[in-house]
Specification:
Blueprint: H1 3-14, H2 19-26, H3 30-38, H4 45-54, H5 67-73, H6 76-88, H7 97-105, H8 108-119, E1 122-128, E2 134-141, E3 156-159, E4 175-180, E5 189-194, E6 197-205, E7 210-216, E8 220-226, E9 231-240
Parallel strand pairs: 1-3
Antiparallel strand pairs: 1-2, 3-4, 4-9, 5-6, 5-9, 6-7, 7-8
């Protein structure tokens, strides 16, 4: 299936509509719609939006999930079973003609339930710069209520402020996904709070009370600190780099 096809199939299924009913609403053939949902026919973004809008789903929702965000970021094929299970628990009776008219005149009627299910498997994860100002976000899937094993509300991306870890393949402007960790994790790149601000260092445990903080720009450098001198914010578990 295609990602936009998954979106269309999910919304159609949630509303209890047949292919023919949706096709009649948006002016396409039911065969065309079935091929789109099956992923055997490529559909343009504007056409997908028109079909979804005809079923009552707006392009931009109150939680800022756009079709572009979803299609470009999330593997909906893995998310669809969770979404279907979530929406079926709230699924209304099969729409009658009066309900169909309401959905057409009020796009928010159908979209809110779909969005409730969507928000259970997707999360806007904030991107922070060195002074912890939010400069963007990424959409990440939630698996079993967690993102990378942590509470979705506790994870965030940190934008590398410099090239101090270039030797460890982290360069200025790269994004690192941070999960909470208050203790040193041996061999991990970690985010620390210091009097000068937050910084990234690779951490090696020396013994039960000391850690080596490593950086590697032009040359490898390290310093040994007592744990009682360090404040760990989190462990970096994912790197996103711009190849341009």
């Amino acid at each position: 299936m295609s990602r936009l096809g998954d979106l269309i199939r999910l919304e159609r299924t949630r509303q209890g509509l047949t292919h023919k009913q949706v096709a009649r609403k948006c002016g396409v053939s039911d065969k065309y719609l079935m091929e789109v949902e099956a992923g055997t026919r490529i559909i343009a973004d504007d056409q997908a939006r028109r079909i979804l809008k005809s079923m009552g789903m707006t392009q931009q929702t109150e939680s800022d999930f756009t079709l572009d965000d979803i299609a470009a970021t999330v593997d909906l094929q893995s998310a669809v079973p969770q979404l279907t299970k979530a929406v079926e628990s709230k699924k209304p009776v099969k729409p009658n003609e009066k309900q169909e008219v309401a959905a057409e005149t009020d796009p928010g009627v159908a979209g809110s339930i779909w969005l409730d299910a969507l928000s259970g498997v997707l999360k806007h994860v904030p991107v922070y710069n060195a002074v912890m100002k939010e400069v963007g976000h990424r959409l990440l899937p939630i698996t079993n209520g967690k993102i990378e094993g942590a509470s979705p509300d506790k994870v965030f991306y940190f934008m590398a402020p410099d090239n101090d870890l270039r030797g460890f393949r982290v360069q200025r402007g790269d994004l690192l996904l941070v999960v909470p960790a208050q203790a040193a994790v041996d061999g991990a790149i970690m985010l620390l709070q210091t009097p000068q601000g937050r910084l990234l260092r690779k951490v090696k445990r020396v013994n039960d009370y000391q850690a080596m903080l490593q950086k590697y720009n032009e040359a490898f450098e390290s310093e040994i600190k007592n744990f009682n001198e360090l404040t760990f914010v989190g462990r970096c578990v994912r790197l996103e780099a711009d190849l341009t």
